[in-house]
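Input sequence (515 aa), recorded before submission:
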Amino acid sequence: MRFEGTQRVAAVVMRDASGAERRHACDTAVVGLGLQPRDALLRMGQGLAVRAVGAAARATDIPPCPIAGTVCACSGVTVPDLESAWQRGFHELELVKRSTLAGTGTCQGMACMPHVRSFLAARGGTLQPPFTARPVTRQLTMGEAAVGAHHQAVPRTALDGEHRRLGAQMDRIGGWWRPWHYGNALQEYWAVREAVSLGDVSTLGKLQVSGPDALELLERLYPTRVKPIAPGSARYVLMLNDRGYIFDDGLICCDGAQRYSLTFTSGGASYAEMWVRDWAESWRLDVRILNQTMALGAINVTGVLAKELLSRAGLPNAPQYMQHASAVVAGVQCKVHRLSFTGELSYELHHPAGDSVVLWRRLLELGKDLGIKPHGLQTLLQLRLEKGHIIVGQDTDFDSTARRVDMQWAVKLDKPDFVGRQAVLRTNKIALDRQLAGFEMEGAAPLEGAGIHFGGEYAGYVTSSFASPVLGKAVMLGWLRLFDGALPDQVTIDGRSARRVATPFYDKDGARARV
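Predicted structure, token format:
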């Protein structure tokens, strides 16, 4: 008849054959629902040549029609709820299930459906078949769901706590927790363009290669000439796979005889490391490879007042463009790289990760009166777009060659050999079909991924877009098809006219970065 108790069962009240109620004190109740065949596979095979034999073919025991109380404990469906559904015209089992949610809970109807079918049989005179079984017929356990699965923890840089303390909106990007912005991306943008700013670039892949065959390894791996890179100098490089497609980019820095430091994109660092190690082993070269990505922090000091800030930090004679040197900055031993991803005067300070917080705080303190602000990844991506710098994986596709991204200058085909050389020679004989190009238009920037049209035909799509404050117009990178062997000069993006223009959009001669 009913259960008694509040937090748990205290008693079961039953009616005997004479109609009298009897109370049985207990702390556990086991409810018998009769025998039901394990026929889930049979029901999944409805419409197929599948039949059941033996116990699987037996009829299902159906309990008496419920007259009161809760029928589905998972969803809290009561007999009055079933009555209400019936009165509203829901007479089919599937409709009653959906209108009351009976059978949609944890047990997926294993406990309640016999009672619901009994209820409908008492009202309609016919026992309706159970609904189609769907795998899984019971809820998966956490252990079952985790079999064969591994969650790679998202790493944090040594400055993660500093970013959060400064109110950064953090996001998982490139396999790391990174600051997207600190509350006002426009202020961060102008801090770089007009003053000085700090950016956490510790996530960059950092690999040291040394040994008697270090130079030979890099000459074979990269499509550029490595030998001319003098100690203290660096060169921007593409990484090609054996099909000639771009899969990463970064720097080669010569640290001295038989020793080089390589950098890679944040998201591609692990793959790039395995790529270097596999080729070194395949060629049986005598090299030592050390991954320093986690061990070294990196802070980008960028903006027109970057040199002034470093001078206050004890570095009056910073390296020249595309040079690097060891130095003590704000009391921390650093390897200072002079480069620019933002288009402004920039220095990357690579240092032991344990010193990151001290260096970060001291630089912020030294730059207070210079208008210093930290910038997040949102601002960095916008700044680099104004300079036309590509993001591998965003502006490139799986089959992007150097010719397709208009960076043939980065591939030296007069080298005797490098990974992907034969593929580049082969594909260079094929007429170019599309190319990454720069575009500008008035007004708001279209969404990344927006279609590009020419003459009413689909011509490509936008990979990066930004309404540039310093230029007063929207700038974009995007893939564009060639028509009659040439790239169109005027296209339509987001229903508006756009012009194809040469990159960079900002500081075309590079004077600000090379100052």
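Checked by second reader. The first strand starts at residue 2 and ends at 4.
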